[in-house]
Amino acid sequence: MQVAVINRSHHPLPAYQTEHAAGLDVRANLDAAVTLAPLERALIPTGLYLEIPPGYEAQVRPRSGLAYKHGIGIVNSPGTIDADYRGEVKVLLVNLSNEPFVVQDGERIAQLVFARHETVQWQQVAELSETGRGAGGYGSTGTR
């Protein structure tokens, strides 16, 4: 799959870190370090601009190492970058730990995973088909 990209950062393009990795690691593009206090959010620029093919999205996902070691996540995870968006890719980080965290320029802060998606055409009906589960949800499958 080919994706057109403009890289206005001073870092290499996102890259897969291992042969079978699903996500490309994305780096922070900062003029100065950003400190996230506990429970604070910040929109971190990457300097990347994408032209995603129609029928695809780029999912912005947290990095497991940052989550495990520092409690750093992404507020709207996974975030979606639509095929018609042409602005800068930014990552909405949140500090879920009890300690401040400093985001450094060039730090790998997220992953991009590209995925195909369908476009829905609604079909309004009066009733839905029956299933064994029915309307049971939120833990209902483990109670019998």
From TrEMBL:
It is an enzyme of class 3 (hydrolase). Keywords: Hydrolase, Magnesium, Metal-binding, Nucleotide metabolism. Its EC number is 3.6.1.23. Signal peptide: none annotated. Transmembrane segments: none annotated. Gene3D superfamilies: 2.70.40.10. Its cofactor is Mg(2+). It comes from the Bacteria. Pathway: Pyrimidine metabolism; dUMP biosynthesis; dUMP from dCTP (dUTP route): step 2/2. It catalyses: dUTP + H2O = dUMP + diphosphate + H(+). GO terms for molecular function: dUTP diphosphatase activity; magnesium ion binding. Substrate binds at R63, S64, G65, N76, T80, I81, D82. Residues 12-142 form the dUTPase-like domain. One of its GO terms (biological process) is dUMP biosynthetic process. Belongs to the dUTPase family. This enzyme is involved in nucleotide metabolism: it produces dUMP, the immediate precursor of thymidine nucleotides and it decreases the intracellular concentration of dUTP so that uracil cannot be incorporated into DNA. NCBIfam families: dut, PRK00601.1. PANTHER family: DEOXYURIDINE 5'-TRIPHOSPHATE NUCLEOTIDOHYDROLASE (PTHR11241). This is Deoxyuridine 5'-triphosphate nucleotidohydrolase. The lineage of its organism: Bacteria, Pseudomonadati, Bacteroidota, Cytophagia, Cytophagales.
